[in-house]
Write a structure and sequence with these properties.
heterodimer, A: mainly alpha, 15 helices, B: alpha+beta
Chain lengths: 351, 525
């Protein structure tokens, strides 16, 4: 029904329908984001945290307290506060963070690249190792490789990540001296390469400064490996179960009966069919990491988004919290869109 | 437990690394570094930076805090009426290259009052208003500054505060060039600095790194370190590993367990600096039971002061039970309250509570507060006083206290040591208007509704007295009266600010007033 219509009016109803679909999408996103702001704002104001005390200290006199409260706009009715707040967000003004006394957007632009860098290296490790491991486990179901992968991923699930981080520091930093202790780079390399992308590994390469690059590698490898281990555990378990489901299908038996080599069946047929599911879980893991790995960022003194958001929450810094929440919301929406696009590439039925 | 076991492993074989000889590398949890304006932020972390990028008119010798020494003011004289005249030394320049003038100094002090943030509290309590401050604090010529009293206040007390970060002298022209909407540079100074100190602020990235560069044109002794780097290391065990390995010279925000663990490291020294304020157990006089003098007197025997100090306070405080800290004018020997359940029980029975009573106990959930609260709860229970612990974070707990909404509470008062008896008495005993609507929320005494007019009178007389010997007599008398009336706050320990430093460092100051000046620090090799 749709096809002839589209053929008949190539620039008319089809386009209109698509446009209205896109508008609906955008409207949906806008409503989601608005609800996110409203919810965060209300929860933030209900929390028994007094941001004024964080600024003035618990010994301040009432006049100082009242003045700061007025300056923060906390003396106005909640509805008015929200109206002002939502209004300024619409004009992309997220205000100043109590936490740093700087514009929130400037803060986010500073802390977010550090988290993107860590999350990206982590997901490359996590997916790069986790997917093949999962497939290996599925193919060797019930045999030694399967058991090994199971033990490995159970450990990854059940070990507290901060403990693993500390243990890693103890062995690889303190004992062996292979990796850096904290932060993104050795202290004497701070400020050496010009900041272009905010991703230190990329910036160092762009500046062709290999010393800084290796220092950054030495600093990112341990936190990314620790986080990556947890990701490997999750991704390999999921991949294994997706794969097992496919290997039990009749087309696999048929292909084998036709004489297609097992390796080819696994990779060319079965794996093709689980790509969509694998993409989904990898995208979700990546999104989770972009929210910030608070514990790992704390253990490694990694100046990222997770620490920023947590510190902001602790002192009730609503400007920073709402902007951060919106950012996380946007990330998940973007990842959803991206996953949708990849579905279309991998699975013709969804086109 | 975990950090302890890790520490044992680490101690076994840390490969040696070394910080550069001409750079000082400091580890600190910088989450509390919210800004650098000396009129607004006076907490522990910013104080350490402010002390090095700014100079003050006068300074304190950390080894002898009763003495006030000249700094930017080469000389100062105290007149009979309490007027202090400062003569600025020649040759001092701001980082901008401008000479430091008396007008800069006068403007900076007035600014502390006019910005109306934390640092203005003192100026307000000394009677300075937005209207009279310009007339009372003024430059006579390029090098002479007078500080006239607005109300009678002991000049010694003012000098104590002028030596702190809030008494910093700022580059007036540079600050005003960055003023926004009449804020006297408040927003700009949060993230920038305009001082004359031995170090210049190179950069500060919140929750990451702060770099100070040596001021080679410093008027005094030029710093031995070319650079000071403060790195944000929120996790205590990580700080400890880096100290043991030699990648850090100083570690400031370690946990008690990690301080204890580091004590076994041959390359690290732990300094425990007795500072300002107390860890205390407090009761509200609004409560009909706790408001009775005899009940409070009995409860004082229900706390295991020595046990708490020996077991949980090692890295947080040292035993002290009086309202005035040791080693200041009017200090008296410590009181002798100790755990005596029988005495406590008998006292409660005599006050009409043979079976005790039930109350709530608010406390911070962090160490050592939670541990103190648990210890107090256990010993009180033996005398029939049942305390239910209500934990919370700092803003919550003190928020309830500021609203006079608590029964009993374990907390901590004070900040950097202010070596004057008025500092602790002002907060712990002075309450000049006990009505709810007076909202003297900065006063512990008001928060607990403790109101003793005679004590108020003595505190007011003490702060107005210019003669230190007469002040001593007044403060001794005030402490006698406080004990007679039985206070609402029972100090358990004097606050201690511990830090760990490398044995390579020479001359690293342990300053209880938090004005740690890094220009005197050098390295042995």
């Amino acid at each position: 029904m749709a096809a002839p219509l589209r053929l008949a009016f190539p620039g008319g109803a089809g386009l209109r329908r698509r446009a209205s679909g896109a508008l609906g999408h955008v409207g949906g996103i806008a409503v989601t984001l608005f609800m996110l702001v409203a919810l965060t704002f209300v929860i933030g104001r209900l929390l028994p945290i007094d941001p004024v005390l964080s600024v003035v200290g618990s010994d301040a006199d009432q006049a100082t307290y009242d003045q700061v409260r007025r300056e923060l706009g906390l003396d106005r009715p909640l509805v008015e506060q929200f109206a002002i707040f939502a209004g300024s967000i619409l004009s992309l003004d997220f205000g100043t963070a109590l936490l740093t006394d700087r514009p929130v957007l400037e803060d986010l632009a500073r802390v977010f690249p550090a988290t993107i860098e860590l999350a990206t290296v982590t997901i490359l490790l996590g997916a790069g190792i986790g997917v093949p491991l999962g497939i290996a486990a599925a193919v060797n179901r019930g045999r030694l490789p399967d058991h090994l992968v199971r033990v490995l991923s159970l450990l990854g699930y059940s070990t507290p990540i901060f403990w693993l981080g500390l243990l890693g520091l103890l062995v690889f930093y303190a004992r062996l001296g292979w990796v850096g202790g904290s932060g993104r780079v050795e202290l004497y390399y701070v400020d050496i390469v010009p900041e272009r992308t905010g991703l230190l590994l990329v910036d160092a390469l762009l500046a062709r400064d290999l010393e800084v690059f290796w220092s950054a590698v030495r600093h990112i490898v341990l936190p990314a490996s620790v986080l990556g281990y947890a990701a490997v555990a999750y991704i390999s378990r999921m991949t294994r179960s997706f794969m097992l489901e496919q290997l039990g299908q009749e087309y696999v038996v048929a292909a084998r009966a036709k004489g297609v080599p097992y390796r080819a069946v696994v990779w060319r047929h079965a794996f093709k069919n689980i790509r969509v599911q694998v993409v989904t879980i990898v995208a979700l893991s990546y999104g989770g990491m972009l929210e910030g790995a608070v514990l790992i960022e704390t253990v490694f003194g990694w100046p990222g988004f997770g620490q920023y958001l947590t510190n902001a929450l602790l002192i009730g810094d609503m400007n920073a919290v709402v902007a951060s929440t919106l950012l996380v919301g946007l990330i998940f929406i973007a990842l959803n869109v991206l996953a949708d696009l990849l579905y279309r590439v991998f699975d013709p039925r969804t086109r | 437990m975990m950090s302890w076991s890790l520490g044992v492993l680490a101690a076994a074989g840390a490969a040696a690394a070394r910080t550069p000889r001409d750079q000082l590398i400091i580890g600190m949890n910088m989450s509390n570094m919210l800004g650098l304006d000396t009129a607004e932020y006076t907490q522990f972390e910013p104080s350490h930076v402010q002390a090095n990028v700014y100079d003050q008119l006068v300074t304190k010798d950390p080894a002898n805090l009763r003495e006030t020494l000249p700094l930017l003011a080469g000389r100062f004289e105290v007149g009979a009426d309490g007027t202090i005249t400062f003569t600025l030394r020649e040759g001092a320049r701001f980082h901008s290259g401008r000479p430091v003038t008396a007008e800069d100094a006068a403007w900076s002090l007035r600014r502390a009052r006019l910005v109306n943030k934390s640092a203005s509290n003192q100026w307000k309590s000394w009677g300075y208003t937005a209207e009279n401050v310009a007339e009372k604090v003024r430059a006579l010529d390029a090098r002479t500054l007078v500080l006239e009293p607005a109300t009678p206040v002991a000049p010694a007390l003012k000098l104590v505060y002028l030596a702190q970060a809030s008494g910093s002298i700022l580059d007036k022209e540079t600050v005003l060039a960055n003023e926004k909407g009449g804020d006297l540079g408040n927003a700009w100074l949060s993230t920038n600095a305009a001082g004359s100190g031995p170090f210049k602020l190179n950069r500060w990235t919140p929750n990451d790194i702060l770099i100070l560069d040596r001021n080679d044109a410093y008027w005094g002794e030029v710093a031995k370190m070319r650079r000071v780097v403060v790195r944000h290391i929120p996790e205590s065990s990580n700080q400890r590993l880096q100290l043991e390995k030699g990648d850090l010279d100083v570690g400031y925000t370690l946990s008690g367990a990690d301080f204890d663990g580091l004590e076994r490291s041959p390359n690290v020294v732990i300094e425990r600096v007795a500072g300002g304020g107390f860890y205390y157990f407090s009761v509200s006089m609004k409560d009909p039971d706790l408001g009775k003098r005899d009940v409070r007197e009995a409860l004082r025997w229900c706390i295991d002061y020595e046990g708490i100090n020996q077991s949980v306070m090692r890295n947080y405080g040292i035993l002290w039970r009086r309202q005035v800290l040791p080693d200041v004018v009017g200090s008296l020997p410590d009181l002798d309250y100790r755990l005596d359940i029988e005495k406590c029980r008998a006292g409660l029975a005599a006050a009409g509570y043979p079976n005790g009573f039930k109350k709530t106990l608010r406390t911070l959930s962090a160490p050592p507060f939670a541990e103190i609260a648990t210890a107090v709860q256990a010993t009180m229970a033996k005398a029939g006083v049942e305390l239910t612990i209500l934990p919370g974070n700092g803003e919550q707990v003190y928020g309830f206290m500021r609203n006079r909404d608590f029964e009993t509470l374990v907390g901590r008062s004070g900040g950097g040591l202010v070596p004057d008896p008025h500092d602790t008495l002002r907060s712990n005993a002075h309450n000049w208007d006990n009505r709810d609507e007076a909202k003297l929320t900065g006063q512990l005494a008001w928060r607990a509704s403790w109101y003793v007019p005679e004590v108020n009178r003595l505190i007011e007389a003490g702060v107005a007295e210019t003669d230190q010997e007469k002040r001593r007599v007044i403060y001794e008398e005030a402490q006698g009266l406080i004990e007679q009336a039985v206070p609402f706050v029972f100090p358990i320990s004097q606050r201690v600010d511990p830090f760990a430093r490398s044995t390579r460092l020479i001359g690293y100051p342990a300053d209880p007033t938090w004005m740690v000046r890094w220009e005197v620090v050098s390295k042995a090799d």
